[in-house]
Amino acid sequence: MSGLGNSSIEAIEKIKARIRACDYLSVAQLFLKDNFLLTRPLKTTDIKPRLLGHWGTCHGINVAYANLKAFYAGDPNFSFVLGPGHGFPALQANIFLDKKLLEVDSQATLDEAGIAYICRHFSWPDGFPSHASPFTPGTITEGGELGYALANAYGVALGHPEKTIAVLIGDGELETATALASLNLRSLLTGSRNGKVLPILHLNGYKISAPSIYARKSERELNELIRGFGYEPVLIDGDEPENFQIALENADKNPFFILKTEKGATGPNRYQMSHQIPLKKVKEDKGELQTLEDWLVSYQFDQIMKNGLEEVSYE
């Protein structure tokens, strides 16, 4: 495949399958308390009595995580920092597939039982919280507190020249004073004694239900703002892995990636309506229940299970 260097067609297909798997698991965690593999048509009794969590940012998180893990596969000095921790279903899906959750929780096995476990116990009493939290492997903060992901990433890089830290920043998050001030750290932490930080702005257009400031800026305005802090903006337009891998491979010394996807992409209600639970009446409305089933089926998770979850793992 031209321009992809070490990335083969098979590697690209694995990334696509990985994203589909994590999208499916994200949705299943939000909605389902039974019938996790859709072995029969969905019933209202399969739906959790209380739906709590965030969908809108999940697909973008899964796109970024899958592409980064593929590109840096086998590198023990690579780390991923997540800004939009409210998109916890996506983070949990990824650490589940890579067996990081299994290292601390013996019930999170990479099989049907493990899928049932993480889905049934997501946002559930005595289970997993709806946001990333210190209970999550590799997490030190509460995921609803936006703003300091970039500062944390530079903190990880400080004094560790061997490290590469990718940090995903929400476009609403970048409006916070903490995140904006953290952009100055690039010029303060230069030199051979520190690691490399790769900021990735997830430009999905909305913060909760309002357009983000950066979605309203022209591409030129946004690029010049980023350049003013000493970075080189690199646009990744859409969720195709080929584009993401090429961007990583061809990045200059101080890249600042802009991942542009629709909020709630691959789901039924996009943009501002997808921030939390996009099908709020799924337990009462048969039409919404069918929409949820169609949504889950669209990820072809049955085929992924047939091939084996190990095939989409980057452990």
Compute the average pLDDT.
Answer: 93
Strand content: 5-15%
**Spans where pLDDT lies below 50 across 5 or more residues:** 1-6
Judged by helices, strands and strand pairing, the structural class is alpha/beta
Tell me the radius of gyration: 19 Å
Second CATH tier, the architecture:
3-Layer(aba) Sandwich
CATH topological fold name: Rossmann fold
Shape descriptor reads globular
How many runs of DSSP E, i.e. beta strands?
A: 7
Q: Termini, distance in Å?
A: 25 Å
Total discrete domains: 1
What's the CATH C level? Alpha Beta
CATH superfamily: Thiamin diphosphate (ThDP)-binding fold, Pyr/PP domains
List descriptors.
alpha/beta; five-stranded parallel sheet; 315 residues; 12 helices; 11% strand; two-stranded antiparallel ribbon; 37% helix; disordered N terminus; Rossmann fold
What does this structure look like?
By secondary structure, this protein is of the alpha/beta class. It has one domain (9-312): Thiamin diphosphate (ThDP)-binding fold, Pyr/PP domains (Rossmann fold, 3-Layer(aba) Sandwich), CATH 3.40.50.970. The chain is 37% helix and 11% strand. The protein has 12 helices and 7 strands. It has helices at residues 9-31, 58-71, 88-97, 112-120, 149-157, 177-182, 185-188, 213-216, 219-228, 241-250, 286-297, 301-307, and strands at 78-82, 164-170, 196-203, 206-207, 210-211, 232-237, 255-260. The strands form 2 sheets. A 5-stranded parallel beta sheet has the order 1-2-3-7-6, sandwiched between helices. A two-stranded antiparallel ribbon has the order 4-5. Strand 4 (206-207) and strand 5 (210-211) form a beta hairpin.
